[in-house]
Amino acid sequence: MSSTRETIDLRSDTLTLPSEAMKQAMVTSPLGDDMIDVDPTVEQLQADLARVLRKEAALFMPSGTMTNQIALRVHCQPGDEFICDDQAHIYHYEQGAFAQLSGLSVRPLAGNCGCLEPEAIVDAIRPPGLHTVTTRLLCLENTHNRGGGTVIPLDLCAELCETARSHGLATHLDGARLFNAVVASGVAAHEFAALFDTVSVCFSKGLGAPVGSALAGSREAIEKARRYRKLFGGAMRQAGVLAGAALYALHHNVERLAEDHRTAALLAECVRRSPHLTLEPERVETNIVIFRVAEAWGGDAARFVARLEEQGVRSFPFSRRHVRLVTHMHISTDDALKAGEIVERIARERA
Ligand SMILES: *Cc1c(COP(=O)(O)O)cnc(C)c1O
């Protein structure tokens, strides 16, 4: 990864490839038909995740989008509305599936890196009446992707969930990167999970599995989710071949997320030193670094990304003026330092 010729790919933490040990876990996992009876590896993953999150049950699914959309369906009926922040993945990056698949509407609220005001939630809850949809659910995201991998602090999560609950709303956590929040904050996963009715997690982001997510919650919620998983086309047969990778990820790859946070901090330092670039948000708490490219640099974010690519660093333009870098298990300290140097050089050279 450190030769000058090789690309340093910072586009996403979904790029990670399974290690030899993870592949070994996949091929040696005991399998069965998870629809007809059980797949023992899927069962074990679900039981282990439920134990980690201290929820009654969990359910394995192919993607984080599916866990989120099924959670919405578990909590809401067609004609209902849910509240989330206006940068949420569930609102931005899932094709409005809540409307397409479940007939729901959404009430996006302005937030600060996924942090909402309790008062704003209360104001957004619709009074009962013939004219209005029914507000059913609050959905939070932790860490927050478009918010630059920011951790929503436990006490704020607690306050927001308590506000929702006291007004009769259910609560769901999009925890695609919950374990990044856990490692960065030192708060146990079950402490976050305890605040929410349902929690989704992804094994295919920083945890390094090729495929897989899971939804956790009460036995009753997960029984409903199992029916919807079949409806949504996500019920799989010998899924243990995938769950084996997720199980390996859950037991071996959580603590090492601290490495990704460390390499992201190294990148952030280089961005801070660079003229024309501003970290937004300023604090880099986990593995996502987002920076703004000033007009004075001479080009937009797409131009900056193209310049990085010429130098072997891959990134995503995140808006017309923002670039996103994400660290993951294939990014070494050397890679981060080299990529950071390249970012700084391009910033100084201008477009
Ligand atoms: C990646 C991600 C998801 C789910 O993505 P899939 O690609 O469907 O697995 C959900 N929420 C957040 C915050 C994510 O970053």
The order of strands across the largest sheet is 2-8-7-6-5-3-4
- The share of residues in extended strands comes to 15-25%
Q: Please tell me what the overall shape is.
A: globular
Termini Cα gap: 27 Å
Overall helicity: 40-55%
Ligands bound, unique: pyridoxal-5'-phosphate
User: What Rg, in angstroms, do the CA atoms define?
Assistant: 21 Å
Give the low-pLDDT segments: none
Annotation, overall tally of beta strands: 13
Q: Describe the sheet with the most strands.
A: 7 strands, mixed
**H/E series, N to C?**
EHHEHEHHEHEHEHHEEHHHEEHEEEH
Q: What is the average per-residue confidence, as pLDDT, rounded to a whole number?
A: 97
Q: How many distinct helices?
A: 14
Give the class from helix and strand content and strand pairing.
alpha/beta
Protein described:
With 351 residues, this protein is of the alpha/beta class. Helix content is 42%, strand content 17%. It has 14 helices and 13 strands. The chain has helices at residues 20-28, 40-53, 64-75, 89-92, 97-102, 118-124, 154-166, 178-185, 189-193, 219-231, 240-252, 257-273, 301-310, 333-349; strands spanning 8-9, 57-61, 80-85, 105-109, 134-141, 170-175, 198-202, 213-217, 277-279, 288-293, 313-314, 316-317, 322-326. The strands form three sheets. Strands 2-8-7-6-5-3-4 form a seven-stranded mixed beta sheet, with helices on both faces. Helix 1 (20-28) crosses helix 11, helix 2 (40-53) packs parallel to helix 11 (240-252) and helix 3 (64-75) crosses helix 10 (219-231). It is globular, with a radius of gyration of 21 Å. It starts with 7 loop residues before the first strand and ends with a helix. The mean pLDDT is 97.
